[in-house]
Specification:
coiled coil; 4-stranded antiparallel beta sheet; disordered N terminus; Rho_GTPase_activation_prot; 7% strand; GTPase Activation - p120GAP, domain 1; globular; 3-stranded antiparallel beta sheet; 770 residues; 62% helix; alpha+beta
Length: 770
């Protein structure tokens, strides 16, 4: 995209805006402020803090991409493992699954030649800087293709989640996608609710660094304080309450009264006076807890990431345009559908998946969190009915908060547009020499292939830039094997322009040279005060003395700046922009204001770094969790191979196993274990989620785990002093993996309930290496 193209392209406001003198002065001021904030020559506390923050943001962006790729692998393997469990997978499919567990080998594979790299550099610059192409592509691809494309779009093409230019271009792409979604919608009710590529995009966007950071800062404390109360039962479904009540009576008395039969219908359960008496105080408490969650969310409005608020704003304005008769109530339900359904509620229902809590919450708090999410959803959607009849009893919560939630959802939309700053970001990008992305070969080839599939729709005219570039690139190379899928550094630049080396030339036509001179001089004075810290305390600033001081130091950079700024002051005085007799008062005041802004900025930078460090830790923890899951799949596949070889061989269990391409006879299965763990150990590790063992007996309880054959385990619960186990349970790794795949995170051992992912991790740790 050339500079001239930007200025005159349809829909661009630049040609109109460039006639507005004040806007230009503001833009240039902002540009020089940005230069002063990030000056490479300055090495004060602010500069160092900013450098740390930039590095941290880059690490978060890179780690987020790794997590997205791992999550995709885990999702893929979940679906394939189901087939393996049912023994419906052919051998070649097993090999395909194994490939998803291979690490990339940096010594294998090849790089495309220089000419191809240059063509891809041009193509990806065009895709990044003109988001309409990607927006159209996201609408054209199938649901099975969207994840791979999203990986490239969200984590590579616009992967720097904290770089305003990339973020703004990504949001521009969202606007185009949403606008098309509204154009093609057949009915209001289905908008944004179905599982489509667009809804997948929106969910993926909320899972980036800023969204994760918000969820952790706003929800983690609330959820953690709730799940501490493991025994607080707030069930309000009359059928379940009735069953729990009947079980308790039977346990206490040893029998059931005739008037309390099991398996009664909902109507009978809900009219039972004892059930009503149990539910009444629970309803009050649930509404209090839901209120506290709601207030926390409403109070956090200022910290909702800009991009998420901006998407809410687009939903509102598109709804008003497409459905002018839609009520405020209906519009808010669409905004709430995105904000609560796609963003807030998944984190409340499964806080462990968002790393907001350690381990899976216990049974009762887990149910309470689900009920709270349902209440918030009902409030945001404001349906005239409740899917479950018992939820109607919580209607007062919806009624009492209607106005408040509408106000909040409308306020969420009150954010500024970024078109002014985007144009400035584009100017800045054109002057940068290091516009680059880190992209894998398969991402390159996959994006290339998808564009070619849809090129007639994306670029019908053969004179358009996208068509020219794809014609030159030719056919897309095939995907390379996972081991050879190297990451390359791709410099982005356009072939339709000479890169603008100096920001001033980009703005010269619209900004007077005196304005430019004034801004640059001010920027240099700010840098000088930052570089000579003892000057910062002397107010008002004596600009002439500062320039002289810099020009006579022993630092060559400062000397150069000091001499330059003295000359600039002289020129500005000649053209009567500043006046030496008043001590250059105008500039002196602006330099002071800029330094106050930078002082405040330092605090903000330090604060932001602290909050992002916790986000980075969360993302790394999640990465470890995902890696653990992949390790379990590796162990499982090894077990499948061993069992398959046994089935082929005799009943002695000796078959043929292929190892590194060579066949060798496996040894007879060896019993591993028993390995011993105390109740306290497993509780500390979060493996025991709930325990019915009385506190005074827990020190005498221990567990022995044995593996008689690969993939089969026996967990035995023992009481010190007794020879025989109190309880033994046979476990197949298939069953545990299937439980995990189906999101059933609890394993019931009668006396204790165990966390399935953590049991898998323990078995993998203890037995996989032996």
């Amino acid at each position: 995209m050339s500079f001239t193209e930007t200025a005159s392209s349809p829909g661009s406001l630049s040609s109109r805006r460039l006639t507005n003198r004040n806007t230009n002065r503001y833009s240039v001021t902002a540009l020089f402020s940005m230069a002063a904030e990030q000056d490479a020559d300055v090495d004060d506390e602010l500069a160092r803090a900013q450098k740390r923050l930039r590095e941290l943001k880059a690490r978060i962006s890179a780690q987020s991409k790794k997590n997205f790729v791992l999550e995709r692998d885990v999702r893929y393997l979940d679906s394939r493992i189901a087939l393996l469990i049912q023994n419906r997978m052919a051998l070649d499919e097993q090999h395909e699954v194994e490939k998803h567990l291979e690490e990339v080998d940096p010594t294998e594979g090849y790089y495309p030649d220089d000419r191809k790299i240059q063509q891809y550099s041009n193509l990806f610059f065009l895709l990044q800087s003109e988001p309409r192409h990607i927006a159209a592509l996201c609408r054209l691809v199938s649901l099975s293709e969207i994840d791979t494309l999203l990986q490239t779009v969200m984590f590579t093409l616009y992967g720097n989640q904290y770089e305003s230019r990339e973020e703004h271009l990504l949001l521009t792409m969202f606007q185009s996608v949403l606008s098309a979604q509204f154009e093609t919608a057949t009915e209001f009710g289905s908008l944004l609710r179905a599982n489509t590529p667009v809804s997948r995009m929106m969910t993926t966007y909320t899972r980036r660094g800023p969204g994760q950071s918000y969820l952790k800062s706003v929800l983690a404390d609330r959820i953690n304080s709730l799940i501490e109360h493991k025994d607080l039962n707030l069930e309000i479904n009359p059928v379940k309450v009735y069953e729990q009540m009947v079980n308790q009576i039977e346990e206490e008395t040893g029998s059931l009264p005739a008037n309390l039969p099991r398996g009664v219908p909902p109507e009978t359960a809900s009219t039972n006076p004892d059930v009503q008496a149990i539910i009444a105080p629970r309803l009050t408490m649930l509404m209090e807890i839901a209120n506290s969650f709601l207030l926390t969310i409403i109070d956090s409005m200022e910290s909702v990431p800009y991009g998420i608020r901006w998407i809410c704003k687009q939903i509102r304005s598109l709804t008003r345009r497409k459905y002018p008769e839609a009520t405020d109530h209906a519009i808010c339900s669409l905004i709430g559908g995105f904000f609560f359904l796609r963003f807030i509620n998944p984190a409340i229902v499964t806080p462990q998946a968002y790393m907001l809590v350690e381990g899976v919450p216990a049974k009762h708090p887990r149910r309470t969190l689900t009920l709270i999410a349902k209440m918030l959803q009902n409030l945001a959607n404001k349906p005239s009915y409740a899917k479950e009849a018992y939820m109607i009893t919580l209607h007062p919560f919806v009624e009492n908060n209607k106005q408040r939630i509408n106000q909040f959802l409308n306020n969420l939309c009150e954010v500024g547009d970024f078109y002014d700053t985007l144009e400035m970001d584009q100017y800045m990008a054109l002057s940068k020499k290091d516009l680059l992305i880190h992209i894998t070969l398969n991402e390159l080839y996959n994006t290339h292939s998808l564009i070619l599939q849809h090129i007639e729709t994306l670029s019908p005219n053969d004179k358009q830039h996208l068509r020219i570039l794809t014609d030159e690139l030719g056919a897309a190379p095939a995907q390379v094997p996972r081991k050879e899928n190297r990451t390359i550094e791709l410099q982005l630049y356009s072939r339709w322009e000479t890169p603008i080396q100096d920001i001033q030339t980009a703005l010269m036509d619209s900004v007077s040279s005196s304005d430019m001179l004034y801004m640059e001089a001010k920027s240099i004075f700010v840098q000088l005060v930052r570089s000579l810290p003892h000057l910062a305390d002397k107010r008002p600033y004596n600009l002439a003395a500062i320039a002289e001081r810099a020009a006579t130091t022993k630092d060559a950079t400062l000397v150069r700046k000091g001499i330059k700024v003295k000359e600039m002051l002289r020129e500005l005085e000649e053209i009567k922009v500043v006046d030496r007799t008043d001590g250059y008062k105008l500039m002196q005041e602006e330099v002071s204001a800029e330094l106050v802004h930078l002082g405040n900025l330092k605090e903000k930078v330090i604060q932001e770094t602290k909050s992002l460090e916790s986000v980075y830790k969360t993302i790394c923890d999640h990465n470890n969790y995902l890696r653990g899951q992949l390790e379990q799949y590796k162990a499982y596949l090894q077990n499948v191979r061993l069992n398959a070889s046994k089935e082929k061989g005799s009943t002695t269990g000796v078959g043929v196993v292929t190892v590194g391409g060579k066949e060798r006879k496996p040894q007879k299965a060896v019993v591993l274990g028993p390995y011993r763990f105390t109740h306290a150990q497993l509780e500390k590790e979060g493996i025991i989620v709930e325990s019915n063992v009385p506190d005074n007996r827990r020190p005498n309880i221990y567990f022995n785990i044995t593996s008689p054959t690969p993939g089969t385990f026996i967990i035995a619960l023992h009481y010190k002093g007794r020879e025989k186990a109190i309880l033994e349970m046979d476990l197949k790794i298939d069953d545990l993996l299937e439980k995990q795949k189906d999101n059933k995170h609890l394993l019931d051992l009668e006396y204790v309930q165990l966390n399935v992912p953590k049991v898998l991790a323990l078995l993998n740790k203890v037995f996989a290496k032996r």
